[in-house]
C-alpha cells in the first residue's frame, strides 16, 4: 500500500505517520470549526426516529471512500442527528464536560492505543492512574485510607454505574464468604427514592432480590435527603424479620434535585452493622474541591467507597469515573482472574497493581492521561473558579426565576441545578404538570436550549443545570427570556 | 479567561475553538512523530515497578502548567513506561488495532463528546450504531435474525467481557423468570478449558456457583476445541443430578491457540434444551469477513448471541466490541431502567432503541463513528487484504519455525497465531518449560519484540501473533532471527 499523491485520499494506509499527520490535521480543523459554530446548531437534535436509515446505504463499501466524502456526510447526515452536549445552551441532565485539555488527553490516549490490563501491559498507565487519583483524593480531602499507599486506592471506571456495580459485588462476596452463598436471597440494600437508577440496575445484576431493595422515601421537608431515622428503622425491621442488611448507597448531589444525604449521620447508624457504605457523588463531587463546598463530604471517613465522575463537571472528556475504595482486596477477590496467558513475573510477584482485577472489562484505555492533563493544564485554582462560576450562573438563573411570580422554585439550590416550575393560575396540580411538560417541549423544540425534567413529590419539575464549559452569563439570560416568552404564550393559549 | 499571546500557553481556556485548533495541531504532530519513531522504543516497557512515583510530584499543581512542559513529561516520563501495542514488533496476546481511520473516528467522537444514553440524547449515535452493526453482520454473513430490522440487533460494548456478561445476565433472568429465583444455585454453564477467563468472571458476577461452571477438558487430538460428546455427556449428567443447564459459551479462536469450537455440532446438542448459546469470536471474528475463513462460523445460525472485537484485528481503535443478539428483549428485560429524569416521548412511545438498556453503563460514547470510518475509508476489499496479509505473515513465520529442527509447532495454525516451543536436547519436559520461559524473557527483555505465552497440555508454549497494522515481512524475519540467536545462546549456556 502506498499513498496516493493525487489527493483523492483513496489509498489511506492502515497506519503511516505522515498520512496520519495530514489527515488528523484536517480532522482538528473539523473539530475546531464545530466548536466555532456550535451555537448555530439546534441544541437538541430535531430529527425523527429512523432518519438516518434513509440517508445511508444498506451495506459497507467494497472500495475505499475518501475522507472528504465521509466529512461531508458527517456535516450533512450525522450532525443533524447530534444533540450537542458541549453547547453553551445545554442545560439538561447533568453536564458531560469536554475541554481542550481533556480532548488533548483523549487524542493522545487514542493515538498510543495501548491496553492497561495488567501493570506489564503498560506500566505508565497503571502508575499514572494511581498517582493522579491520589492527587484528586487529596484535592477532595478524602481520608488517607482511600490513597494508594495503604490497602485502598483509586481506579478509573467508565461510569458511576460500573463503580457502584463493582463495589456492590465486592460487598456481596465479602458477606457471602462469611455466611454462605445460600444467604443471597436475604441480603438487603439501602438507598433513597432519589438514588440514581444505576443502583437498582447493579442490584439486579448481582442478584439482590427486588423485594430486598429499600429505596427509602424522602420528604420535601428534608430537601429529598435520606433520613437517618428512616434508615435506622428499616435496618431494625429487616433484622427483626431475619434479613441481612449489607449495603448502603448514599448520594451527594442526587440526580433529580442535587440533594445531599447526611453522610455523617448515616455512617453512625450503619457502623453498628457490617454494612458496606458507598457514596455516589458522581456530579457534585467536583464541587467539593472548593473549600466552601467540601462540608458536603463530611462523614466520608465512614464510607467504604466513594465515586465522582470527572467526565461530568471536571473538564475530563467522557469516560472517566473516579472510584476510591478503602479495601482494594475486597474488589480484587471478586474481580480477579489469573489465566495462564496473562501471567507475568510482576503480577505473580505481587509487587504491582493489575487494574483488570478492579473492574468488569479486561481491556482498558489510558484514561488517566486526560485527567492528568486537565489537572496540570488548568491547575487547582482555575478548576475551583470554573466550578464557582457555574454555581454563580445557576444562582443568577435562580434569581431570575424568583423574580417572576408565575414561577416557583421547588428545591433549595445547592450546586448548579435549579429546580423550578411554572404555576398555573388555577393551581390545579394535574394541569400544572401538563403545563410544565408543554413548557419543556416548547423550549426544547425551539432548538435554542435543551433542558430535562424530573418529578418531585408527584409534581413535574423543570431542571436547569449549568455546567457546560462554554456557558456564559449571556446564555443564562437568553435562556430565561426563552422560558418567559414560552410561558406567556402557553398561559395565553390555555 | 482570555488567551495569552505570549505563547507560554498558561491561559488555556476550558474550551475555545481557536485554542483547541492550535493545541490539537500540536498534539497531532506529537502523535504522528510517535508513529514515525515507534520502532525506536523497546516494545515491552523496561521500567521497574514504582518508577513513575519517583518522577511525578505528590500533588496537582495550583497554577496551570504549559502544554510544553506536559509534552516534555510525556516524552521523558510516560513513554518509557508504555508498552507499545502499535509497534510492528508487538506479537503478544492478541493485537489491539489502531489505524488512521480508527484514530480519526476517536478524535471526532472525543471532540463532539456526547452521550448516546437514549435515542433522544443523540439520535445519530444510536442510529449509526444500528446501521453499521447491520453492515458488519452482513459482511460476516450472520443470519438475518441478528439484524436490527427484526427482534434482534447489534450493539457496541466496551469489551468481550462486558458482552458475555450482559448475555449471561439476559439468559439467567430468562430462565429464572420461568422457574423462580430460588433456582439460581442450580443453574449450570458450559464452556471449555480454553474459554476466555472473562466467562468465569461473568459467571461469578451474576452469581453462578463456581461448582456449576463446567469448563470441559479439551484434548490435543481435537486441537483444543470443545468436544460435542463431552458437552452432551456433561449436560446429561447435570440434568440427571437435578441441575439446570442454561448457557453455553463457545469460542471461535481461543486465546491460547485460536482453537475453533464446532458451532454446528454444539448447536445441535443444545437445541434439545433451553440453553442460551453464545459465541465468542473476539479475535477471529474479523477473519470471517474473508470467504475462505467464513466456514469457521458455520453453525452460527444456532447461536443466540455473537461477539467480535473490532478493536482487536479490525483496525478500530479501542474500545469497540460488537455484540449481536437474536432477542433484544431478553437483554432489555435484564438491563433496562426507566427513571423519571430520563423519560422522553420517543422512549415512552417505544419507537426507538435506547442502548442504555442493552449494557451495564448508562453513559456511552459515539463509538460507531470510528467503525463506520474504518469501513468506509478502507472498504471491504482492503479489510480482507489486511487480514490475509497478516495470516500470510504468520504462515511465513510458521515456515521459518518448521525449518529449524530445534523447535516444535504445537498447534495447527488457523489464523495469525503461531504456537511453538524450543525443544531441549534432553527432552526433559520440566526443563523444556524453563527453557521456553527463559527464551520468552530473553526476547522480551531485548526490547526488540514482545511476545506472550500460554500453557497447553502442561507445556509452556510461546505465542507469536501477527496483527499489528505496521507489521511487515521484515519484522517477521527479524523476530525469527532474534528467536534463533536467543535460543542458541540459551542452549549453549545450558
Automatic annotation (TrEMBL), chains A, B:
The keyword Lyase applies. InterPro entries: Aromatic_deC (IPR010977), PyrdxlP-dep_de-COase (IPR002129), PyrdxlP-dep_Trfase (IPR015424), PyrdxlP-dep_Trfase_major (IPR015421), PyrdxlP-dep_Trfase_small (IPR015422), Pyridoxal-P_BS (IPR021115). Belongs to the group II decarboxylase family. The modification N6-(pyridoxal phosphate)lysine is found at residue 312. PANTHER family: GROUP II PYRIDOXAL-5-PHOSPHATE DECARBOXYLASE, MIP05841P. GO terms for biological process: amino acid metabolic process; carboxylic acid metabolic process. One of its GO terms (cellular component) is cytoplasm. Transmembrane segments: none annotated. The keyword Lyase applies. This is Tyrosine decarboxylase. GO terms for molecular function: L-tryptophan decarboxylase activity; pyridoxal phosphate binding. Pfam families: Pyridoxal_deC. Its cofactor is pyridoxal 5'-phosphate.
